[in-house]
Amino acid sequence: MSIIVPDEATLAEWIATAYDVCRDELGREPDPAYLASMVHVAATPPPEGGSKEAMIRVTRLSPEWHAKHDRPQLPDVPSRADVCGVHTHFQGIWYDTREFGRFPGGFLALLADDDRAAAIAQHKAVGDTHVTMDLTGAYREPAAIYPERLKNGHDWSNDLPGIKARVREAVVAGLFVDFALGGDGRSVNDNPAFGQYNDPVGDTYGHEWLMANLERILTAFRGDAGSEAPDGEDLTRYMLFRPGYDGVFFGWGDPPGQPDRQPARVLAFGARFRSILPDGYVSIEHGIGTIPVGDGGREYGAGMQAYDAIMSEFPNWPDRSDAVWQIAARLLGAAYRRPSDQPAGDDPRPPFYLAPGTPRGPYFACAFEFAKFPESRGRLQPDEVQRARDYYVALGYTYTG
């Protein structure tokens, strides 16, 4: 095959083009070997060579290009039990970071890239299957010991590709994501604008905002064409969505003196989620001593069947009371084991609320939050949180936060 013999000006143009291609495609300055290979491509007549496009094509065949650009593939699609059965350290793990040093685990999506990778590795090392991330949130509590940058949080609701990329990092590392949607409380109006929070401490939006924006959020994580993250990649199969934290139930209620439509709001959110993601996974966290939605368990054979997992907040460790025992007994059923510190005559025949299951399979009960508040103030260390976790496992919980 004949080759093109360049004059001095043409050779200089080829070399300049090779510099551009190397910077764009490999992110570095070209070395002599790369320049020589690209000059050879430029000297080869079309269609094999002779153009910038040919240089790009050949560069993209290189192992170096693939190492830089090939994204790890998503794991095999998990089962419902894998995603809904939460094993995590929502409390009880402290991150060791380059940027901030050591602090109680949290704000995973906001960490610097290297610190985030290290934190994900920490979760895997302790046997977690899940990590928690937030669509929007802050924690400007004066007594909390988190670094200031993290306490000020971040709102990803206008950057869904950004938070989707961080969820993907956890997924390809082999973890599922418990994902809180910022819906705690009631919104300041029917559809707040970006940054129009209902809570200046927590940067959440509330129920009305979440109902108005839910489809926009979920379709982005599903990768739908026309969504805000139209990459065709469905991460919802690896995510357990949660409308918010304990500010959902109780938190979606009405002012005193008005009819309380909180139960209807909880059921409406579940129905709305299920209409968008019929096979998706959704949980609800309830506050201390309050099982949604207050209908004596009948709702778990009806409207609550839109939900997959019930995430319980319990009293701050080491407190124990009926807000632990009576709640756990109703959510665990026959798996509940009465502890020695529960009075002998207390709650002798508790009903099992979750017995009906859902059309997609059983409910999942998780002892999710039981020591986060004192831990976030530096009052509990991981070994003390582990004693709390052991207590809830002894009650019969398979899944804990």
Number of domains: 2
Architecture of the largest domain, according to CATH? Alpha-Beta Barrel
Shape: elongated
Strand order of the largest sheet: 8-9-10-11
Q: SSE order in H/E notation? A: HHHHHEEHEEHEHEHEHEEHEHHE
Q: How would you describe what is shown here?
A:
With 401 residues, this protein is of the alpha/beta class. It has 2 domains: 8-68; 80-400, TIM Barrel. The protein has helices at residues 8-26, 32-43, 52-59, 63-69, 80-84, 113-125, 148-151, 160-172, 207-222, 262-276, 322-332, 372-376, 382-395, and strands at 94-97, 101-104, 130-134, 136-137, 154-155, 176-180, 239-242, 283-286, 309-313, 364-369, 399-400. Strands 8-9-10-11 form a 4-stranded parallel β-sheet, covered by helices on one side. Strands 3-6-7 form a 3-stranded parallel β-sheet. Strands 1-2 form a two-stranded antiparallel ribbon. Helix 1 (8-26) crosses helix 2 (32-43) and helix 9 (207-222) packs parallel to helix 10. The chain is elongated and about 95 Å long. The mean pLDDT is 96.
What secondary-structure arrangement, pairings included, does this model have?
Blueprint: H1 8-26, H2 32-43, H3 52-59, H4 63-69, H5 80-84, E1 94-97, E2 101-104, H6 113-125, E3 130-134, E4 136-137, H7 148-151, E5 154-155, H8 160-172, E6 176-180, H9 207-222, E7 239-242, H10 262-276, E8 283-286, E9 309-313, H11 322-332, E10 364-369, H12 372-376, H13 382-395, E11 399-400
Parallel strand pairs: 3-6, 6-7, 8-9, 9-10, 10-11
Antiparallel strand pairs: 1-2, 4-5
Helix pairs in contact: 1-2, 1-3, 9-10
